[in-house]
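Support case: flavin-adenine dinucleotide complex. Customer-provided input:
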Amino acid sequence: MKIREIFLKGRPLLSFEFFPPKKVENEHILEETVGHLKKYSPDFVSITYGAGGSTRAKTLEWTLRLKDVHGLNVMMHLTCVGSTRSEIDSIVARLTQEGVDNILALRGDPPRESGSENPWKDFRYAFELVRHIKKKGDFCIGVAGYPEGHIESPSLEKDTEYLKMKVDEGADFIITQLFFDNRFYFRFRERTERAGITVPILPGIMPIINLGQVTRFTEMCGASVPQSLIREMEGLSPEDTLKKGVDFAIAQCEELIREGAPGIHFYTLNRNRATEMILEELGDFRGRESGPSNSPKEGEG
Ligand SMILES: Cc1cc2nc3c(=O)[nH]c(=O)nc-3n(C[C@H](O)[C@H](O)[C@H](O)COP(=O)(O)OP(=O)(O)OC[C@H]3O[C@@H](n4cnc5c(N)ncnc54)[C@H](O)[C@@H]3O)c2cc1C
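Agent response - structure generated as follows:
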């Protein structure tokens, strides 16, 4: 089912993001995680596309597995860095053939090793990929948004301008990079509204279960972890870190939903425990109406 049609129902969405395990011996972890999280009937699940080509075939394999074996509504991430137009075309054709309705269209990141071949082939930015996919079929297309600005971007204004280009090319909704201070999301929403972006902006939430891992990750992607939270978490046992991270995420999700976010997208890192703890505490927030902002109503498209 196309995700844009679910947004039209006017209630918040629930979605989970997974990555394809690199090693066969880790596949059971994702299978178990999906087994646990399925009971929350996510509106969709998404599968990341491996940077630098490493797990790309596995992305498609898992997309189809989650759709056909688990009966889930799926969205496949697709990056254009390092891919030629014909490579993209063959993946998109396969998605059409398999009945996958949703694609998250991304630029991706060039490989970090120096000396590798020029990563820029037929597409330079995600907006070009959106334009291209749009011509290939009636997909629902999501794109990435950055509440704190993309790490390479010269300014928030430029970032918003480029985001608008993706929407103008036909993106149906935005999923945000992770953030830990909701004010970034609310300011981002205001900026995008001022720029005339009206598609839903789904906040991406990552519960902290390991402080070191999250700070490394945020440094790489240009997001920030509040210093006060770092201080509170430093030195905690793994179990106490988990509890603190879960409580923090619950408060974040509560406020986002109350303030009209059109749902929550969980970066699960292929683990279920933290996400389950959060969802048990939050209850079924999808019973609540989406707030006035950021959620198209039937007929508005
Ligand atoms: C929800 C989410 C899921 C993700 N999933 C994956 C994944 O599965 N696999 C993966 O490898 N990566 C993934 N990423 C990371 C993403 O690929 C990187 O953040 C990447 O650096 C940017 O991708 P983008 O699609 O936002 O690029 P773009 O929108 O193309 O932006 C990239 C940079 O170029 C700038 N820019 C855009 N258009 C123009 C223009 N016309 N002129 C000049 N500058 C411009 C932007 O401001 C930005 O700085 C994900 C990110 C998010 C938020």
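Residues 48-49, 51, 77, 79, 104, 106-109, 125-127, 144, 150, 152-153, 158-159, 162, 165-166, 175, 177, 204 surround flavin-adenine dinucleotide (CB under 6 Å).

Case will auto-close in a few days if no follow-up is received.
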